[in-house]
Design brief:
Helices cover about 50% and strands about 10% of the residues. It has about 475 residues and is of the alpha/beta class. The chain has an eight-stranded mixed beta sheet with strand order 1-2-10-3-9-8-7-6, sandwiched between helices. Strand 7 and strand 8 form a beta hairpin. Helix 9 packs parallel to helix 11. The longest helix is centred in the first third of the chain and has 51 residues. This is Tyrosine-protein phosphatase domain-containing protein. GO terms for molecular function: protein tyrosine phosphatase activity.
């Protein structure tokens, strides 16, 4: 209290002292101008009396304008000083009120309590919530990942692909899978690391090839059931890592990989449990604000907010990943799609396109980790779609068969069933039908979609009811 009174007195003295100095300075300048003016008048005039008078009038006008500016500046300063004094006085009065003991009725106390609650509610409403922050990030990611199909080469590639699928149709896609993909294993495939680490493999029959496997730099072992998928037809800016759903004993390996490979996005295409069976370990906290410390490491993962994409079954969570002794503060967007049935296909193809749109980027140093349970069926389907889309966007001819074989050379068993293979076609046809509204293109895409829907109905494949969804924040 005494300190505040002292500061108020000091501020007041400084203001008075400054006012005196400015007044003396103003008087000195006025006197100096008067002397110069008298000297000027005494000098023999080289001009006529009329010109001399005009010159003096201009100088007087300039003086008047300068004085007005100085007066305005002084008034502004006085206003600021008054504002400062008012703030200090208000603070003192508030302190006095705080330390003054008064008797209040129970009703007054209740009203004051309600007022405080309302003020806290108002402040909370104004403060940006985590969900709003994540929504803004999602919106920005969707905008950044949008693709351009305006070039004639791209349009031609899309139309040629649509024409080819009109003769193949969905049953033809199933036949193509059975003949050329189902048993396909690339030549020179080895599995030494897989065989040496049986406790780190979720399924005995889902192999991890040595080619393109992720080699961990830290820890007791360099093995994790994961493979790099990068290179043509993917652009340099895209780097996928396909992996299995972490086991309790491999959660530490999973997060070491994310740190090592500078992961910026994780796509999870399953639930932790499906039909009573564990499909993936809970490797992050679903509760906002919680921090999970990863056992056996110095890594911690904090949940910083969520966004639920309305009607899509997708949840985006913002994760902050830190490691003791490492200054790199890592932010990861975790996208979980919960309604894709294991070994099946969803009827809603929009989610695939939107997920891929959110993870496209220009940063060549980061990666996108994508997994389901085994990391080959649902995972391989999404990656195959993106590889095919990139060929179309480059204006190049597309054969889905060749692309899936190319993918399997990096991650074995990718696209696990014939229905998933047909679904790759369905997503691509859906993309073309949206982006190329030409009547001829629309006709052939509708033919494939009709045959695909009939196929799904005949196979009695468990699907989710399809409806247009709002994916991402409202635009």
């Amino acid at each position: 209290m005494a300190m505040l009174l002292s500061r108020l007195k000091k501020a007041k003295d400084e203001i008075l002292h400054r006012d005196k100095d400015e007044k003396k300075k103003e008087e000195a300048e006025t006197s100096s101008r008067s002397v110069r003016l008298r000297k000027k008048i005494r000098k023999p005039a080289k001009e006529s009396n009329e010109n001399a008078l005009s010159t003096r009038q201009k100088k007087l006008k300039k003086k008047t304008e300068k004085d007005k500016r100085e007066d305005r500046t002084k008034a502004d300063d006085d206003g600021k000083d008054n504002s400062t004094r008012k703030k200090l006085i208000g603070l003192i009065m508030k302190r006095k009120k705080k330390h003054t003991v008064t008797e209040e009725s129970p009703d007054d106390e209740e009203r004051e309590k309600e007022s405080r609650v309302q003020r806290m509610h108002d402040i909370s409403e104004r403060r940006p919530a985590h969900e709003k922050n994540v929504a803004e990030i999602v919106k920005a990611q969707l905008a950044a990942g949008a693709v351009d199909v305006s070039s004639e080469d791209v349009k031609t590639a899309m139309r040629n692909f649509a024409l080819r699928t009109s003769s193949l149709l969905a049953p033809g896609a199933l036949q193509e899978y059975a003949q050329s993909i189902k048993m396909y294993i690339p030549e020179d495939t080895t599995r030494e690391a897989f065989d040496k680490n049986p406790t780190k493999n979720r399924y005995k029959d889902v192999l991890c090839a040595d080619r393109e496997r992720v080699v961990l730099n830290k820890g007791d072992s360099d093995y994790i059931h994961a493979n790099h998928v990068r290179g043509a037809p993917l652009p340099e800016s895209q780097h996928f890592i396909c992996t299995q759903g972490p086991l309790p004993g491999t959660v530490a390996d999973f997060w070491r990989m994310c740190r090592q490979e500078l992961t910026s996005s994780i796509i999870m295409l399953c639930e932790t449990k499906e039909q009573g069976k564990e499909k993936c370990c809970q490797y992050w906290s679903e509760r906002d604000g919680d921090t999970m410390k990863i056992e056996g490491t110095e890594i911690s993962v904090t949940t910083k907010g969520k966004f639920l994409h309305e009607g899509s079954g997708v949840t985006t969570t913002l994760l902050n990943v830190k490691e003791k002794g490492d200054s790199h503060d890592q932010w990861i967007l975790h996208h979980q799609w919960k309604t894709w049935p294991d070994k099946g296909v969803p009827e809603n193809f929009d989610n695939v396109l939107k997920l891929l749109q959110m993870i496209r980027k220009s940063d060549t140093k980061s990666s996108c980790v994508i997994h389901c349970s085994a990391g080959i069926g649902r995972t391989g389907t999404v990656v195959a779609v993106e590889m095919c889309l990139q060929r179309l966007l480059q204006g190049r001819p597309l054969e889905v068969l060749s692309v899936v074989k190319q993918l399997r050379a990096k991650r074995m068993h990718c696209v696990q069933t014939d229905l998933q293979y047909a679904f790759v076609y369905r997503v691509l046809i859906g993309f073309v039908s949206i982006r190329d509204p030409e009547p001829e293109t629309k006709q052939v895409t509708e033919e494939f979609i009709k045959s695909y829907n009939s196929l799904i109905a005949a196979r009695q494949q468990p699907t989710e009811a399809y409806a247009p969804v709002q994916f991402g924040p409202p635009s």
